[in-house]
Amino acid sequence: MLADSHCHLNFPELCSELDQVLAHMRENGVARALCVCVSLEEFPQVLEIADSHDEIYASVGVHPDYQDAAEPSVEGLVELARHRKVVAIGETGLDYYRVEGDHSRQQARFRTHIRAAKACAKPLIVHTRSAARDTIRIMEEENSAQAGGVMHCFTETLEVAEAAMAMNFYISFSGIVTFKNAHEIKEVARKIPLERMMIETDSPYLAPVPYRGKTNRPGYVKHVAEELARLRGVSVEEIASATTRNFIKLFN
């Protein structure tokens, strides 16, 4: 069985046909999925989906790229994370791709999430884009190893992966690893230990080959597993077993 460590079932593309999306997920051997929160305003919908389906879990957090979202506090995140279906804090992190100039607000928000994760003893879901150096630096400064977590939709170098793994983080691969030109990510996928690997869709985005450009869904995570198996010269069952075991271990 497979586990999708990162999807957005509350987004309109998936929420509007949730029953079909979940049926497709089961048909493709995906037994668990984590519905990831990107703003406090959306958290009630994320939690409702998780609460209504045994195989779906939730996180709570504010995406670094959401400039106008309500700002989280450590105390507020810890309180929301008390719910039995909330298994992680995030997604959080840094995203400098569209932001020029001062990044202090993003960095402060990231620190808030790390402190909340340590306070409630739940792992972090970390997003980093065009900001790897600052992401790792803040993780080290805030002792994020105490919480652990996962580097979601990993697109960085092996050195960044190794720095994250040294802080008790898993490396999660999305449909990007199936893209023909994703040479560096494929190389990272070949080299990291299986006991530190996870898989995800980030649906409704980043559909893997052969569905690239279409709406992604959790059932397509099997194509990520198939590509990782091909890259490493092992069976899909071995990838599925390892990544599901890691999902269960990290998110308790």
Features:
8-stranded parallel β-sheet, alpha/beta, 252 residues, globular, TIM Barrel
End-to-end separation in angstroms reads 17 Å
Succession of helices and strands? EHHEHEHEHEHEHEHEHH
Cα Rg: 17 Å
Number of domains: 1
Number of helices: 10
Characterize the structure shown:
The chain has helices spanning 12-15, 18-27, 43-52, 74-80, 104-120, 132-141, 158-165, 183-191, 221-232, 236-251, and strands at residues 2-7, 30-35, 56-60, 86-95, 124-129, 149-151, 169-173, 197-199. The chain has 252 residues and is of the alpha/beta class. Strands 1-2-3-4-5-6-7-8 form an 8-stranded parallel β-sheet. Helix 4 (74-80) links the parallel strand 3 and strand 4 (86-95). The longest helix is centred in the middle third of the chain and has 17 residues, at 104-120. 50% of the residues are buried. The mean pLDDT is 97.
Helix and strand topology:
Elements: E1 2-7, H1 12-15, H2 18-27, E2 30-35, H3 43-52, E3 56-60, H4 74-80, E4 86-95, H5 104-120, E5 124-129, H6 132-141, E6 149-151, H7 158-165, E7 169-173, H8 183-191, E8 197-199, H9 221-232, H10 236-251
Parallel strand pairs: 1-2, 2-3, 3-4, 4-5, 5-6, 6-7, 7-8
Helix pairs in contact: 4-5, 5-6, 9-10
What would you say about this model in short?
By secondary structure, the chain is of the alpha/beta class.
